[in-house]
Structure formats: C-alpha cells, structure tokens
Amino acid sequence: MKRHQLFLLFVLLTFTKPSLSKTVDIDVLVEDGYFPIIINAQKKQGFAPEFIKILNGAQQEFNFVLKSLPVKRLALSVEKNNFDVLFLMALQWIPLSAQENIKKTEFYTITKNELYTLKENTNEQAYFDDITSLTKVGVLGYSYQFAGFNTDAEFLSEEHQVSLTIDEFNVVKMLLLKRAEVGVLNNIAYQYFKNQNTFNMDLLYKSNVPDAVYKTHFLVNSKSNKITSNKMDEILSLPTAQIHLQKLLDKYGVSSNYTSP
C-alpha cells in the first residue's frame, strides 16, 4: 500500500471512530402514578416520554430508556441502587439512606402540591387554615407537608384522614364524587386536566397556600458509572435539545430554571 493511501486510511479511522462506539443505554425510572408526567406509558404519550425523545434526538452517545414503575418497586430500586437516573424527582423524596449515592442536575423543574376542595364547600381561604379534621385524598407514595412528609399509608389514614389512590386523576374524581373534602393535586396535573377538559376544574376552589413546593431534578446514581449529573446537564444544554425543550415545558405548563437561547 502506498504512503498516501496509508495516510488516508489513518485519517478515515481516526475521524470515524466515534461513530463506531457503542451507544450506552441509560435506564430512566419514573413513578407510574406520576400523572400527568406519565399519561400513557404504553403509547409513550406525556411529558416524560416526550422529554426523553428530545434527549435521544439531541445526541447519539446515550440511549435514554424510560421505565415506569409502581411506587413500591421504584422505592426498592432506589434503595438497592438499581437504577441509572430518576426522572425529575425532588431529592427529599428519596430515603436518606440512598441520598449519599445520588447527584442531582443543575437543571430542575418547579412543582407544587396544591390543596383543592369543591367550590360548594367554600369560597374562602380560611377553609384551609386547619385541615386536620377534614377528610383528604392523595396519591399513594407521595409525601405531604401537612403530614410531616410521612408516606406510611396507615399513619396517613389514622392520623390525618387521608385516603390514598393510584394517581391524581383519581384524586380529582374522588373530590367531584364528594368522597373527600380536600384533595392534594400537583399543579402540572391540574393544568393538564384543565387544558384537556378531562374534568370541569372550575368546580374546584384552590388554596392560595400550597402544601409544598419542590425543585425536581434528574437524579443520577453515582454508583452506576454510566453517566454523571454534569453530563446530563451538558446534554440538556445542547442546541439540538434546546430547540425543543422550551416548547415542551410551555406545552405542559412546567416552570423551570431552564433558559432558552
């Protein structure tokens, strides 16, 4: 082989090497009751599937695979460090024993747990000043400030009169059916139901004071050694991702610290 042919072969191998590297699969876990973040996991509809699609379309180094799990299985995966990334969760939702292995992204979204009741019950904020004696409905596995962030179902039922359901769709349903006086509803879920006319949300009266406000990050398992939180932020900052991210955030009414170019 001639010298110039060897040189061309060297250049070809050098610059095509990245394309020959194997894409790394990253499992991204999300709670299947995290409605409407996951609306229909099988049809890949909703904020989370669309977000993951943007991340995969923006780069080729990683293949993000969204996996929705029931709350108990998700908690078990976290406790056993059997995950790569958690989709937009607050660090305080994670057991203290598992937090030491978790790194959060600089990117975060803002979510609120808000208190609602039927307008026929009240049209005054004072109704929510003391909800101790009122029957309440929430989502299994969620933590609530009024209950000291204790997620134990028996404790919530006996000490705080909280009935638990699988998702926020059923929270609204129970309010409308008058099976509870106060419902705890995520602000993103409320906006989605209202925009989609899933329920007549005008029948509900909202407290001016949310139960709690959270910053939800991508939480990266440092033990998995597949990806870092810095790398996640780097991908989120790619121009190929930024083109679509703001539109997605606006579509679902999600507030964040994201700044579009």
UniProtKB/TrEMBL annotation:
Tell me the superkingdom of the source: Bacteria
Entry protein name = ABC transporter substrate-binding protein
